Amino acid sequence: MTVEHRPWRGVLVATALPLNDDLTVDHDKYAEHCAWLVENGCDGVVPNGSLGEYQVLTPEERARVVETAVAAIGGARVMPGVAAYGSAESRRWAEQARDAGCTSVMLLPPNAYRADERSVLAHYEEVARAGIPVVAYNNPIDTKVDLVPELLAKLHGEGYIRAVKEFSGDVRRAYQLAELAPELDLLIGADDVLLELAVAGAKGWVAGYPNALPAASVELYHAAVDGDLGTAKKLYEQLHPLLRWDSKVEFVQAIKLSMDIVGRPGGRCRPPRMPLLSEQEAAVRSATEKAVAAGLA
Known about the structure:
Elements: E1 10-14, H1 27-39, E2 44-46, H2 59-73, H3 87-100, E3 105-107, H4 117-128, E4 134-138, H5 140-143, H6 149-157, E5 163-166, H7 173-180, E6 185-188, H8 194-199, E7 204-207, H9 214-225, H10 229-243, H11 251-261, H12 278-293
Parallel strand pairs: 1-2, 1-7, 3-4, 4-5, 5-6, 6-7
Active site: 137, 165
GO molecular function: 4-hydroxy-tetrahydrodipicolinate synthase activity
Keywords: Lyase
């Protein structure tokens, strides 16, 4: 019997997207960034997630971002976000990812309105027809649709999803999900609950802050899932002043600023995202400089 390939396991970085001064996408820098992340121990990338500002990309840009990542590190390491307002559009993005050589995709529930359970099931059923494994993304804070454990178990039981990026922040759900759907892989979805979800049995991390600090983040993840709590707790305490920004409204700006500080291509965001307020910038800068001084960059 062959072991099932689960490319969403490990540390997959929800990549920030480098932009030129005129706010066009810098694909060369993006390709280099994807390669750098893998060189520093990350298992893959997730382009076109919220951190990648997918909502403000044109269809042409969005497709090329996926193709750029695949060309840089190979399709097996690339799990694009395929969120869209309509199920047909999400399915088309899943098909584009499949045809580009990717082996899994990540999908939010319907997010143009507060969808009911029947709509959520129909949405994931439609995208699953693309024939590529789907990882659900539960982000009830931003989408107003909560993929509670019972609903996730139903989606998994129907064969529509294989894993879930869990961003609710409620770590208690991990244990209920393991009881209801033991074969459904739980992925850490918010950087600032990494240790808690790793201890609870998470199989991967769809991560934000490794964009700036990949090696230290990968070390933290492996220590946590391997049960080396001494190492993990120390690193977690050192990194948490940064990791908690992943759960704030300004997470894209914060992570890009940290990238700038450590010499990575962070830069500006497209509107309507605004630059950090001066006090926010000072807090991110201080926490990043402390991490650098501690040898974590």
